[in-house]
Fold:
Amino acid sequence: MLQVNFILNKKGTKIAVQIPIKKYEKLLANSEELDEIKENRKNKSLKSEAIPHLASSLGIQDTALTDEMVKLAVIKLYELGKISSSKAAKTIGINRISFLDLLGNYRVSIFNDTESLLEDMKNA
Structure:
């Protein structure tokens, strides 16, 4: 049971509440957590509105924009050396040669993937 003491003004009206510090800290933490949840929901709705808005302004379908965003992310991950060309190609649903060819359209060197190149040299 929550121990609560009310502070009254001269007319007897409740103007404040006194609670134990542990209960106050818990209430404060819960309040901050609720604020974070509200902010996350707000951000999610902004993100979910961003794709249709951007797609519309570009004159393309939402799915085309989403596909392009995934492709760009995969290309960037390849460029940073986070994934191989094989993994990148598989992720966007094309063969490895097509992926390597695609990199030229985005001015990304095909020589970032030394691991795959060494493997190809062994197999040649």
Q: What stands out?
A: The chain has two domains: 1-59, 61-124. The helical segments are 21-58, 62-79, 85-92, 96-105, 114-123.
